[in-house]
Specification:
The protein is α+β, with helices and mostly antiparallel strands. The protein is built from 8 helices and 18 strands. The longest helix is centred in the last third of the chain and has 15 residues. The two termini are about 35 Å apart.
Length: about 325
Amino acid sequence: MRSPIVVVADGIVCLDDLYGVNACATEISPWEVLMNDAGVKQESKGAAAVSARFDVRPLSETMAAEIVGVDLSQPLDGQTRDAVLAAFLRYKVLAFRNQKLSKSEQIAFSEQFGTLERHAKGNIGNDDYPLVHTVTNLGADGQPTGVVKSTRWHSDKSFRPEPSMATILHAVTLPPDGGDTCFADMQSGFEALPESEKTNLSGMKVIHSWQHSRENVGKSFTQEELDDAPDMTHPLVRVHPETGERALFLGMHAAFLDDRSKEDSQAKIEELEDHCTQEHFVYRHHWQEGDVLMWDNRCLLHRADPNFDAAKFPRVMHRTCLRGTPTS
């Protein structure tokens, strides 16, 4: 399989995609560049004056790609940023290897793509960097606890009025094996449903509830926490604000469908989630230290796989989240 190449030169963004189509355009949005893959072939002009060039190497048949040749510790020029965003919209999960970012550098990289969200109080390592959440199996004493969090399928902050647009996760310390993160393509899962099913689902609403997800894993909560995270109603079939593609909006926070009972709602939610998390819709990322992953919460579910000895080996990740927009 030939690696796609993104070239930015003289205001021209080119994506040489999987099928040998060279998509180049001037002064148009990243998504319009990608839409040219459908059949419009445009020639690049002034390609000798390259201001940024990097490889895009697909990591699976349906989604995820490794970006090679971009140093995330340095500011991206506007054209490189647009090309990265184009690849992000096309592949949904981007992997950047060997980055070794400080928290400040991760914040700076993340903010080139949107507004960062603050995380909940009490998260480890947030005192000096409230925009960076340390995701880890280490306790307050610095020792492994044996607990791996976020092992159920979810989309970050789907219980908020404006669910997270994207998550950037940096691997700082990893176990010798395992500790993978899995991603489910909710757009491909939706499109694979029968047309009659897609029509029936498209008008439905789903209530995402932080309380529901806490209760399901046996965690306690305060009234203050509940007041800060009330139940939120979203479309069951979410339209991506930049691509226009449709995806099922599910995950561990999804509690009720329309006016159905909790039992009926959960049965249907489980059925749809089982469909969308079949192996051919899933990408599994095997982490290497220094990896940075950037993924699109608007069309994916993800989960941590506890496939390592969490009582013996540390796993430390730094997470930043970009604020999204209201669902539609």
